[in-house]
Design brief:
Blueprint: H1 3-6, E1 8-10, H2 11-22, H3 28-36, E2 43-45, E3 48-52, H4 53-75, H5 90-93, H6 109-119, E4 125-128, H7 135-142, E5 146-149, H8 154-164, H9 169-189, H10 192-210, H11 215-221, H12 227-240
Parallel strand pairs: 4-5
Antiparallel strand pairs: 1-3, 2-3
Length: 241
């Protein structure tokens, strides 16, 4: 089948088309993710990455539009799709202090902001009896809303307090430089950089032969790769390591 018959698009063209099709912002990074993880096929022409418009359309219809339709059939049309926040990029969902650490079950700040704006105003007091990693308190602080957080876990309260701490930026910069200097000395004394460079080269060669991307990722997702194959290749590379 020719390029014309396939109706191939560049990453940029696919991003624009998908944004119009789904009526939400679909970035070039979103499209690249689908290609890199084998969710849609990659077609090459003159060194360019091209993808099939039909495959992209089929993917979004199956994984987004049809899912939304099934949810509406079960729960009705009163669902507030705004609360999905699926158009917000990862960098915004983990902005500033929210990306300092992982935390299971952490709210994205936009979800907290939505309810704070709806039910509170500046100067109000919000109580979070399960403060967790402190997302509610942080967002309330940004919106000039007073907040109180309670948690049975002392660790959680420490996480939250650290996020609220006033930091001496000059002292922080000095400490960072000290740590980086110590790390550099350690790396030089133990030839860490040379080891990592060679390891990376060997790993890239190994992956190129045994795990061609994105073909391998697609076959793995479709269940065509046996678990035994992965264990076998892992043991092979451990000998190299």
């Amino acid at each position: 089948m020719s390029v014309v018959e396939k109706n191939l698009l560049t990453i940029k063209e696919a991003s624009k088309w998908a944004s119009k099709f789904l009526k939400r912002n679909i970035t070039e990074s979103n499209i690249s993710y689908l290609v890199n993880y084998g969710k849609i096929n990659k077609y090459g022409e003159n060194g360019k990455t091209l993808i099939s418009l039909q495959e992209l359309k089929d993917y979004y219809e199956k994984n987004i539009l049809n899912k939304e339709k099934k949810i509406k059939e079960k729960l009705g049309d009163e669902i507030n799709w705004e609360l999905s926040f699926d158009w917000i990029p990862e960098r915004e969902r983990t902005k500033h202090v929210h990306r300092l650490h992982p935390y299971k079950g952490k709210f994205i700040p936009q979800l907290v902001e939505y309810f704070l704006k709806r039910y509170f105003k500046e100067g109000d007091i919000v109580l979070d009896p399960f403060v967790g990693s402190g997302t509610t308190l942080i967002q309330a602080n940004e919106m000039n809303i007073h907040s109180i957080g309670i948690d049975i876990s002392e660790f959680n309260t420490i996480i939250t307090e650290v996020k609220f701490a006033n930091v001496n930026l000059g002292e922080l910069q000095r400490k960072i430089k000290e740590i980086l200097k110590s790390l550099k000395i350690y790396e030089e004394n133990n030839q860490i950089l040379e080891f990592e460079k060679e390891l990376k080269q060997r790993l890239e060669q190994f992956n190129k032969i045994n795990f061609p991307s994105p073909e391998f990722k697609k076959e793995f997702r479709e269940g065509k790769i046996a678990k035994e194959y992965l264990i076998e290749k892992q043991n092979e590379f451990l000998q190299i390591y």
